[in-house]
Amino acid sequence: MEWFYNPTLGTCFIKPIRDNTVYGRDATLLQIEDAAKIAHAHTFITTVEKGYDTQVGRVGLSLTEEK
């Protein structure tokens, strides 16, 4: 298995939550939502205006919404 980044550093890519969740894989929205529910993140994600399409900020420190 290739190791593209060290997950203990909390690294995220400047892409929507949806893309960060499935990075390197194909997945349906249902599978993405199920993964977020397992990680106890689904409720939070659904409270932001764009949900799974919300951009993750630089290194995952902030979430931003494009206007």
From TrEMBL:
Keywords: Hydrolase. GO terms for molecular function: hydrolase activity. It comes from the Eukaryota. The keyword Hydrolase applies. SUPFAM superfamilies: P-loop containing nucleoside triphosphate hydrolases. Signal peptide: none annotated. InterPro entries: P-loop_NTPase, Type_1_exporter. This is ABC-type xenobiotic transporter. The lineage of its organism: Eukaryota, Viridiplantae, Streptophyta, Embryophyta, Tracheophyta.
